[in-house]
Design brief:
This protein is α+β, with helices and mostly antiparallel strands. 42% of the residues lie in helices and 29% in strands. It has two domains: 1-41, no CATH class; 42-93, IHF-like DNA-binding proteins (HU Protein, Chain A). The chain is built from three helices and five strands; from the N terminus they run ααβββββα. It is elongated, with a radius of gyration of 18 Å. The model has no long low-confidence stretch (mean pLDDT 96).
Amino acid sequence: MANLTKRGLAERVAEETGLSLNKASQVVTSVFSTITDVIKDGGSVDVMGFGKFGTRHVETRMAMNLHTKEKVEVPAHNAVTFKVSKTLKDAVK
């Protein structure tokens, strides 16, 4: 089992497509940038056979600082979500 970095992903894209490493890196960067822009604007990105990236709103809540035991308020925010597709789930089983 190996971990794959962004550069490693670009290297694989270059191998499989015949693109130069530079062009493949631009493609990978562009894909991630596009996903980021869409979900930042409140949209979602559905990649058939892979999964769906999106956001959900998380309400304000109380939490505890584990070092000081002091209660702190965690403000409301949007969290990034990813829902894996059935195809990917089945492939991993």
